[in-house]
Amino acid sequence: MRGGLAAVQETTAEKTPPSRRRYTSPAMTERRARIVDAAHRILGEGGVAALTIRRLSDEAGVAQRTLYRLFGDKDGVISATVVDRMVEVREHIARRDHTYTLPMVFRELDWMVSELDRDSLYARVVIDFVFAPEVRTLEVNELTSVARSRFAGWLEHQRGKGSVRGDLDNEALVDTHVMHEFLVYRRWSLGQCGSEQCRLELHACFLQSASLVLTGELREVYLAKLVALLKRIRRMRK
Questions:
Q1: What is the average pLDDT value for the chain, to the nearest integer?
Q2: Among the residues of the chain, which ranges form H helices?
């Protein structure tokens, strides 16, 4: 029994990321930024396989020991690129009106598609993290945080107006919607739809999820919008 517990503890220890000192000096902060920028570029050009500590050290112009001190390992660097990028996204969204009406939701989704286009090589790499067999919990939580906050914010706004059913598991609904949204991003990343179709499919995805929780006349309005969008998407697919 003790041997089994020791084996579990040893396995847990192996999976625990190495602790890292926090460096806050201007020099280290600048080096960290260079490393993350270089990693972002390398990931976009060749994916995770292209990112090695040696190559990153060369392209960022820092010693390999500095990489290990700052990030622990290659996965630590990858996580940093995702976290930093999503911080930028959340900061951009925070500067906007945060009342999640439907027009606001659509504007945010349209902006997300423009960001996919702007940084398409890297975007395709990180979208794959959500669907990869290797679990990347930190990265996936970061990547899905904006979609989760958007739907939860819209849900809260509609609940305040008395337009939402009270007999549903809202947390499960948010989880399901987020995965459906990322399936649309996945189709884009695989080249199965272009940017305009991706944008329309994201709108339709949101309307479909929203229609499940709404009541009364507003539900009928959302359903009518969904039907019209699906017709447009069908024409684009022909």
A1: 88
A2: 2-15, 26-46, 53-60, 64-71, 74-94, 102-118, 120-131, 137-160, 170-189, 195-213, 216-237
